[in-house]
Amino acid sequence: MGRLGELEPVPRKSTVEIVYDELRSAILYGSLAPGDQLGEAELAARLGISRGPLREAMQRLVQEGLLHSEPHRGLFVITLDENDVEDVYMARLAIERAACILLMQRNRGEAVVQLNEALQQLVEAARERDRIKMSDADQAFHEVLVRASGSPRLERMAQTLLVETRMCLNALQAKYPEPKELVEEHRGLVDAIADGEEERLLRLIEEHMVESIARLCG
Rounded to two decimals, what is the model's pTM? Predict the structure, then answer.
């Protein structure tokens, strides 16, 4: 890393990374819906690329579990039922609980600053009652929470689970929490970190996940 203020080369993404991001975003926002088949020829034409990078990007999504292969048929976006919803949130609980423990051992002050910024985005989205912006802000908050743990492996695992969470919410928008309730749940997490109360933080993160399961599967 260079001296402060020194210009450095801007990282350039490969074609595979760009295509991967595009496909992942399409799954995240539902443009590629659960059960949709991914046709290589059509997608390559739409994206203006050759099939090589497309295949590599799709294979990454297969490895992440967001696409699945059916023999003699091709690749499809995964579908999630109620059992999957519960599994996603319980897996998130394991990861985010571990992240919270690590976070409390590190620079809590920096984490609180970053989480308050993410919380403000959620507050603004809730004020507008914009479900898409709320989902974006909700996801961003939990990305910051896991990133603040300092564990790249936890962060990597959380990324796929957060996309699966979004797929659950896209299918079950009517069961999404009320804006005020969503904000208060996340504000409670920030307050527990700021107060240095690990036990309360772990209890709140568990309640957050368990209540989400009850809400979405009830």
Answer: 0.83
